[in-house]
Amino acid sequence: MTERCAYTIVNHNYLHFALTLARSFEQHHPEHHFFIFLVERDVPQGTTERADLGPRTTLVPLGQIGLPDLLQRAFYYDVTELCTSVKPDCALYLFDQGWAQVVYLDPDIFLYGALSDVYEGLDRHDIILTPHTVVPMADQHMPNELDLLKTGAYNLGFVAIAGRSEGRRFLTWWAHRLRFDAQIAFDSGLFTDQKWVDLVPSYFDHVWICKLRTLNVAYWNLHERSVTVDGGRYLVAGRPLVFFHFSGINVHDPSRLSKYQTRHVLAAEPVVAELVTAYCRAVQARMPRPVAYSFGHYAGGRQITAGERRLYRELVLRGHAVVDPFERPPFSGHPGPPGAAPLDGSALINRDPAGRLDGLIRRLRPLAAVLPPSLLRTCVIRATGAVRALHFLTNPRRWFYVAAGLLHRGSRPDE
Question: What is the DSSP letter of 64?
Answer without folding.
Answer: G
